[in-house]
Amino acid sequence: MSAHGEPVAMTARRSGPLRGVAEVPGDKSISHRSLILGALAVGETRVTGLLEGQDVLDTAKAMRAFGAEVTRLGAGEWSVHGVGVGGFAEPAEVIDCGNSGTGVRLIMGAMATSPITATFTGDASLRKRPMGRVTDPLALFGARSYGRKGGRLPMTVVGAADPVPVRYTVPMPSAQVKSAVLLAGLNAPGETVVIEKEPTRDHSERMLRGFGAEVRVEDTTEGRVITLTGRPELKPQTVAVPRDPSSAAFPVCAALIVEGSDITVPGVSQNPTRNGLYTTLVEMGAEIEFQNPREEGGEPVADLRVRFSALKGIEVPEERAASMIDEYPVLSVVAACAEGTTVMRGVKELRVKESDRIDAMARGLEAMGVRIEEDEDTLIVHGMGAGGVPGGGTAKTHIDHRIAMSFLVLGLASQKPVSIDDGSPIATSFPVFEGLMRGLGAEVARTGA
Ligand SMILES: O=C(O)C1=C[C@@H](OP(=O)(O)O)[C@@H](O)[C@H](O)C1
Ligand SMILES: C=C(OP(=O)(O)O)C(=O)O
């Protein structure tokens, strides 16, 4: 099934070396947050480098439905006239967040402490994902929610008319849950405290501060304790969105496994809560140079120079999982092309993403002749060495952009071409993927078109 209309079958095959500069789009997490925080500020926020993927476009549309004025000025350049904390209007329509877990969960948080009601839905993938992880803490603020069985969309959230601040320990490693609680805390009087046992991406904390909210972060024996002072007046900002390390992962991993490759991926965020994949690849023997380290838009960034490398399997430390959670699918492709076994433990969160990513990667890799082992919380890939993966199969992508891009990357290095049943979800996070990969010399094409 397709995310938007007809499925788009695609095939990738071995080509010559990948060469050139890969300018990947803006960071998805920061793009969502710049629109939401811009909508909650008083005055005009300007954003450059915004990711114009469907996930973020759906958040832009939602912010308009809540009363903000959101305008596209040019490529990646956007203006948001916000309504202020507590100023959201009640939407007259159902909020459709498409394929985006981040979009729906952060927006639920942002509206849950205002006296308005909103109904949320999404595509067939998002309608399967659990929302209780967000509506449970939102209930502590006084919000009520009515969804399908298992806390599934469509779901109506009735915002708290008289919200109270909350102290909440997030039970699973999830930046979306943490962020939903912080955004709800904005319109609760007093201090809202969120505790995370394992650190997750910290864009909300950084950006809330940037927009003028008071946010304290302390590392304690309980974990990271984040304290937000409610009812600030958020000041509009100029946000320069850095390039997305999760999107950069695809050309980077492709260059590592296609013989003779040498590419540069400029301006990629090196935020330590996001760079676990890069640490892991270097441990596997990847030749990656982190050039020109600098700060852009409040985030550390670097230009990555990446060459084809002889890679070996490793055991990925469990505590690194949150800092590379979206990169396990493409890491398992790299692992298939490495010598030896790669063990990925502590990854059960992958089962509640756009698809069950452990299952989708396991079945797809098996179809390409790769031996894997899995349990609820683990994926083990038995590497076949550079050029050793047979390929020649079709992987099901289950409306999941990262599964789609991962298998296309595998096709560039496997003996026979790799096909996917549907590449249309790629547009949710990386709309220029196909053209960018072809520009590097990759043979990626729509089949039957
Ligand atoms: O906060 C965010 O922007 C995100 C958090 C992560 O999800 P979880 O919070 O569910 O781990 C990640 O998978 C997603 O792509 C983006
Ligand atoms: C998990 C992802 O996104 P989301 O949860 O926002 O749908 C992702 O982009 O890999």
TrEMBL record:
The active site is at 326 (proton acceptor). Belongs to the EPSP synthase family. The lineage of its organism: Bacteria, Pseudomonadati, Pseudomonadota, Alphaproteobacteria, Rhodobacterales. Keywords: Amino-acid biosynthesis, Aromatic amino acid biosynthesis, Cytoplasm, Transferase. It is an enzyme of class 2 (transferase). It holds the Pfam family EPSP_synthase. This is 3-phosphoshikimate 1-carboxyvinyltransferase. Catalyzes the transfer of the enolpyruvyl moiety of phosphoenolpyruvate (PEP) to the 5-hydroxyl of shikimate-3-phosphate (S3P) to produce enolpyruvyl shikimate-3-phosphate and inorganic phosphate. SUPFAM superfamilies: EPT/RTPC-like. GO terms for molecular function: 3-phosphoshikimate 1-carboxyvinyltransferase activity. It comes from the Bacteria. It comes from Albidovulum sediminicola. CDD domains: EPSP_synthase. It catalyses: 3-phosphoshikimate + phosphoenolpyruvate = 5-O-(1-carboxyvinyl)-3-phosphoshikimate + phosphate. Its EC number is 2.5.1.19. Its main location: cytoplasm. Residues 15-435 form the Enolpyruvate transferase domain. Monomer. 3-phosphoshikimate binds at residues 28-29, 33, 174, 176, 326, 353. Phosphoenolpyruvate binds at residues 28, 101, 129, 176, 357, 402.
